[in-house]
Design brief:
187 residues, alpha/beta, elongated, two-stranded antiparallel ribbon, 41% helix, transferase, 5 strands
Length: 187
Amino acid sequence: MGASARLLRAVIMGAPGSGKGTVSSRITKHFALKHLSSGDLLRDNMLRGTGFPRTLPQAEALDRAYQVDTVINLNVPFEVIKQRLTARWIHPASGRVYNIEFNPPKAVGIDDLTGEPLIQRDDDKPETVVKRLKAYEVQTQPVLEYYQKKGVLETFSGTETDKIWPYVYAFLQTKVPQINQKASVTP
């Protein structure tokens, strides 16, 4: 390892459904970075897609443990996220998942194979989604301001991960070596 090899400590923030998981996996694929997590707490948070740090004390604790170099904030309009998150419908008996936008059932609200009604998980119901998004905003606003003051916050705004990704990619290219120089900006 030469002296130039350096660990980039990046935090990815964004509301539930903003595309953090997709962006994280693309970063891992395109750059010589591992999707690192500080212990199981963070891994659990990442698997549940809840995002960490979510509160100012968490952000400060993370800073004491690791010097955070950059914070990538995915800023996706709430309406877009709400549509994304409420688009999921499930056939309870089989576990088949439909998405109104990407993978809709042939008939609205009906399972393709059995003709049985589809249900929406409580988590995916509009009122629950709105509550989660509002809670996220209230909780993380101080975190974003904290990182803004430290000069490490980079916000990427848009409605689609595929449109936001090239900007995240270009930004990270200035910070880290790529795994694969031929890997272009394609998802």
